[in-house]
């Protein structure tokens, strides 16, 4: 989001920005991730006893679902403000403050390592993916979600409107869309020594009942906090109002179609996977192919899953 010290990662900068409005994020914006979270639980087979790590866990929404599925869950995030909210919401999970690039865990500690819209904020996403691989147990799954293709993501125009208020940043600088160009994430995952086992898109929607809620929700994101500090709140509100206008619904709310791209990967090539992991993998894929994700608890979210 801003130039970062490559030795210390982006945690100091991002932690402060993302922690500023963590409660608004948890209440109003995190719900847009529900499909991503549910798809991860289902596709990785998280259940009783699975050791799960969520890197860049934010306010703990995914950790809560994984813990409810019976997993032994750890979440880590740069933002102390996010972690404070997460600890309140999910008391039976271990939460740590730290950098995605320098995980304070032993090698081979987790059966699933997940990151939802967090790797794009690492100072060096490749190093963060190598860390994910290091702490993954042999046979473990690394599950990564980022925003999908920009022409399938109506939130992208809103993010560009906010970014226009900030000084120009170099191409590839950390930020919400930095790994969204087709092929970028898959290439990094391969360079990190992981083997992609599944790749696809999730079509979600971010919905807000009215203008005030939409503004509060989007203003909770770190990029928007930074823009307000740089350009002032009135400029941000004006930019957001303009960018959101095309997505106004007949009832005065807003609804934006948002594509996520996900990758599941393993640190083990297929031929070296233990037999138990190999069969678990194929049954997971089969069950995904049979059924689209359900979102009974968030009815206005996602409609369908695309695969390729
Ligand atoms: C878009 S939010 C996603 C939060 C959560 N995964 C979710 O989907 O609701 C990005 C999160 O990554 C965290 N983050 C950014 N840079 C980080 C870093 N270098 N190390 C750890 N967490 C980081 C932020 O604090 C923020 O909580």
Topology:
Elements: H1 11-19, H2 22-29, H3 34-44, E1 51-55, H4 61-68, E2 72-77, H5 80-89, E3 94-97, E4 110-116, H6 125-135, E5 136-147, H7 155-163, H8 184-191, E6 195-208, H9 211-218, H10 222-231, H11 233-244, E7 254-266, H12 275-290, E8 304-307
Parallel strand pairs: 1-2, 1-4, 2-3, 4-5
Antiparallel strand pairs: 5-7, 6-7, 6-8
Helix pairs in contact: 1-5, 1-10, 2-9, 3-4, 7-11, 10-11
Bound molecules: S-adenosylmethionine (SAM).
Core attributes:
308 residues; disordered C terminus; 8 strands; Rossmann fold; single chain; alpha/beta; binds S-adenosylmethionine
Summed up:
The chain has helices at residues 11-19, 22-29, 34-44, 61-68, 80-89, 125-135, 155-163, 184-191, 211-218, 222-231, 233-244, 275-290; strands at residues 51-55, 72-77, 94-97, 110-116, 136-147, 195-208, 254-266, 304-307. With 308 residues, it is of the alpha/beta class. Bound molecules: S-adenosylmethionine.
The whole-number mean of residue pLDDT values reads 87
Number of strands: 8
Rg result = 18 Å
Name the hetero compounds present.
S-adenosylmethionine
Count up the helices.
12
**CATH architecture title of the domain at 11-153 and 170-206 and 258-292:** 3-Layer(aba) Sandwich
- What is the CATH domain class of the domain at 11-153 and 170-206 and 258-292? Alpha Beta
Q: Which overall shape is indicated by the principal axes computed on the Cα atoms? A: globular
Order of helices and strands: HHHEHEHEEHEHHEHHHEHE
Main beta-sheet annotation: 8 strands, mixed
Kindly report the spatial arrangement of strands forming the biggest sheet: 3-2-1-4-5-7-6-8
Which ranges are low-confidence, i.e. pLDDT below 50, for 5 or more consecutive residues? 270-308
DSSP strand content: 15-25%
Ends distance: 30 Å
How helix-rich are the residues, as a percent range?
A: 25-40%
CATH fold name of the domain at 11-153 and 170-206 and 258-292: Rossmann fold
CATH superfamily of the domain at 11-153 and 170-206 and 258-292: Vaccinia Virus protein VP39
Q: Which structural class do you get from the secondary structure elements? A: alpha/beta
């Amino acid at each position: 989001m801003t130039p970062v010290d490559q030795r210390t990662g982006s945690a100091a900068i991002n932690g402060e920005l993302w922690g500023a409005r963590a409660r608004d994020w948890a209440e109003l914006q995190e719900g847009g991730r529900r499909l991503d979270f549910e798809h991860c639980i289902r596709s990785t087979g998280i259940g009783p006893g699975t050791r799960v790590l969520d890197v860049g866990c934010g306010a703990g929404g995914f950790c809560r679902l994984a813990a409810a599925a019976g997993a032994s869950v750890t979440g880590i995030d740069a933002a102390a403000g996010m972690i404070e909210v997460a600890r309140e919401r999910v008391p039976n999970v271990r939460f740590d403050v730290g950098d995605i690039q320098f995980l304070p865990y032993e090698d081979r500690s987790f059966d699933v390592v997940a990151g939802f819209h967090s790797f794009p904020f690492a100072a060096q996403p490749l190093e963060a993916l190598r860390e994910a691989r290091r702490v993954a147990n042999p046979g473990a799954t690394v599950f990564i979600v980022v925003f999908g293709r920009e022409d399938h993501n109506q939130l992208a125009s809103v993010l560009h409107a906010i970014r226009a208020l900030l000084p120009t940043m170099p191409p590839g600088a950390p930020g919400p869309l930095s790994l969204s160009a087709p092929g970028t994430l898959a290439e990094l995952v391969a360079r990190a020594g992981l083997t992609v086992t599944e790749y696809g898109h999730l079509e979600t929607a971010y919905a807000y009942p009215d203008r005030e809620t939409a503004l509060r929700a989007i203003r909770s994101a770190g990029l928007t906090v930074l823009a307000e500090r740089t350009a002032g709140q009135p400029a941000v509100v004006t930019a957001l109002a303009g960018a959101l206008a095309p997505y106004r619904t007949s009832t005065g709310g807003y609804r934006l179609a948002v594509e996520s791209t996900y990758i599941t990967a393993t640190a083990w090539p297929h031929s070296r996977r233990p037999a138990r992991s190999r069969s678990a993998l194929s049954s997971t894929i089969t069950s995904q192919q049979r059924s689209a994700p359900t979102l009974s608890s968030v009815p206005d979210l996602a409609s369908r899953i695309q695969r390729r």
